[in-house]
Structure prediction request, 447 residues.
Amino acid sequence: MTAMIILDTALEKRRAEKGPIRIAMIGAGFMGRGIALQIATAMPGLQLCAIATRRLDAARRAYEEAGQEPRAVSSLQELRAAIDANTPAITEDWRLLCEAPEIECIIEVTGSIDYAAEAISYAIEQGKHVVAMNPEIDGTLGPLFGRRAAEKGLVFTDADGDQPGVTMNLFRFVRGLGVTPVVCGNIKGLHDPYRNPTTQKAFAERWGQKPHMVTSFADGTKVSFEQAVIANGTGMRVAKRGMIGPTVETGTPIDVAAQKLEAERFIGTPGIVDYVTGAAPGPGVFVLGTIEHPQQRHYLELYKLGKGPLYCFYTPYHLCHFEAPNTAARAVLFGDAALRPLGAPCVDVIAAAKTDLRAGATLDDLGHYMTYGLAENADVVHRERLLPIGLAAGCVLKRDIKKDEVLSYDDVILPKDRLIDRLRAEQDRLFFGSYAGDTLPVRDVAE
Prediction:
């Protein structure tokens, strides 16, 4: 993408003058291993000094697949000695990465919410830029983390290569042409809210991924979080709960498929985030934009973008781990974010029942058997006290819930003393003046 055109020379200059940018990573799953490989083989201006994981063998595997031999460390002194010796370090204690003064940026790629919330909070507290390849945590607590980072002169950002970051790069490109974005869209290949880890097991095994992760792609939870993050970075909203999300015949060109969004009705508004299923090229992203000047419209028609009033721009791919390290360079060298929250949340992701649920049941995690996510405008979520799906796992149902019914705070008992609930309360009070979950009962998770 366009950002790399300036980053390549900037990284060469940084490496020659001060050495490579020293970064660390928390998490080393499927995507984390790809990031480690990319930095080791294609980005000499970056140095992945350390990886923290809950199991050391996962971190070791990431380095070994990248052709490097890591050293296990368990103290800040040992970590700093490894960095000084240019030896990759692995540890089970992510706090060491945040505390090491040599580390300039943390890439968080755990795919978690509770674990990630603690790590990101501490990284910002310790003065680190944070790249979160984790739309679930960004869509749940990103506005709060964005505010905290900005107050310390730091960058909290989603990642280049992930669809939200790619969309924001395209959004900025389109806006830079003088075209006003009206829709930021995602191109999906499948959407079925009732998929679960059992139905997605074979696909996950084929690609070496976890069944619950690919389930969240299929059941709409992932795209809801991705589009919420984009909305929070652009000021856009959703046209309705769950977005419009038309399905078209497989292979339909995106400029044709996007017409089903009837986006002309959103011209003159802050715009919407949405998605289309079945269009080509996929998996890509698109932006629909408009421009008033008649001569500029004439030029756009000449350049084969049509007669308007809406013009379709698209990126035909998102190369997740190939592009993600660019984000760290943008943050450290330029203080620039691929995608950061503007301020107050615009869109949130709420929990809906994937099947009939019974009172007393404990809700499982994202991409599992009990819930799927729906994008909804944040003011509605707060006013109606709807339950963010990022907080749903571990909650106990107080009543029976019918399939496809959305959950509210009044329907659940929250686990006791969770960091994510405290952070969400802080975020709600910061931007809305009150916490939607106030006066809720809580339970001890040991009960």
Summary: The chain is about 40% helix and 20% strand. The first strand starts at residue 21 and ends at 26. The CA atoms of residues 191 and 218 lie 5 Å apart.
